[in-house]
Specification:
heterodimer, A: 140 residues, alpha+beta, YaeB-like fold, 4 helices, globular
Chain lengths: 140, 141
């Protein structure tokens, strides 16, 4: 049975990666291929961390998640990131409160250092602003 | 062959899920007890780097012994269980409860009310609740 969340996912062209207690982590279809190319261990860890995020984001450690990667310039939305320092991957996105959802808009798979790549940070922020231009700012 | 690969992937996913659970569990416990990672290293008598390893993504060299040492250092005794054991324990409780229900319907009703009260408001400081807690501790042992 389709839920209003499913309709919303179709509308914003996203796939669900993890779900728990009615909260979801979704990824934009344009980023899906890059996510699927990650090795099983990295995907397994991300999946486990995402499920815990759905349960309660505040319980994640600083190694798993960064809830403040800065705000976007136009819509002032908070950029957040799921992290895996061993695989050197960051999944950038933002949370949509009224949809109980985290949407991944960008992936940094070429992290050369522990610190975030500023170019990709900027790109992720711009993608969130583009997303909000297209689908609206309600609930951010 | 496809099944074998999928099975291997599931194994890796199960490993990672458990590692994440343990890391979050330890981190939460440290927060509850107001213990920093530096404090933990000191009381465990290990290097700060070893603690960093415990919380890292690859979680290298995190042995059962090290987990036991971390728990002991925080004044806790770890208990290990799995879904099957929890299910068996629950079944044991159900059997006991149905025996009691046959013997004394009113008592079971009082117990159910007490369990519900304890779940909502925490343990009450009276003899009836204390007896209930003792009973469940015995059952769990």
């Amino acid at each position: 049975m389709e839920t209003p969340q499913d309709d919303y996912l179709e509308q914003i062209e996203c796939d669900v990666l993890a779900e728990h207690s009615g909260v979801r982590v979704a990824i934009q279809r344009g980023q899906r291929k890059e996510y699927d190319a990650l090795d099983d261990r990295a995907q397994g860890r991300f999946l486990a961390v995402m499920k815990r995020w759905c349960d309660d984001p505040s319980q994640l450690t600083s190694e798993m998640f960064n809830g403040n990667e800065g705000r976007t310039p136009r819509h002032n939305a908070m950029l957040k990131a799921f992290k895996n320092n061993t695989a050197k991957v960051r999944l950038y996105g933002f949370s949509v409160a009224d949809k109980k959802m985290f949407i991944i808009v960008d992936i940094d798979t070429a992290k050369k250092q522990t610190k975030a790549n500023t170019r990709i940070l900027k790109r992720a922020k711009s993608r969130i602003d583009d997303f909000l231009d297209q689908y609206g700012k309600k609930g951010i | 062959m496809a099944n074998k690969i999928s099975n291997e992937k599931e194994k890796i996913f199960a490993e990672e899920a458990f590692v994440v659970d343990v890391q979050i569990f330890l981190d939460q416990l440290m927060k509850e007890k107001n213990i920093s990672r530096a404090d933990l290293a000191r009381v465990m008598n290990v290097s700060r780097a070893r603690i960093t390893q415990i919380f890292s993504d690859d979680c290298k060299n995190f042995t059962v012994r090290l987990l036991a040492r971390a728990m002991f250092a925080m004044g806790e005794t770890p208990e290990f269980t799995c879904e099957l054991h929890l299910k068996n324990l629950h079944h044991k409780w159900e059997v006991e409860r149905s025996k009691l229900a046959e013997a004394a319907k009113n008592v079971v009703q009082i117990w159910d009310e007490e369990i519900s009260a304890v779940e909502h408001y925490g343990p009450a400081n009276d003899n009836r609740a204390a007896g209930l807690v003792r009973h469940y501790k015995r059952m769990a042992a």
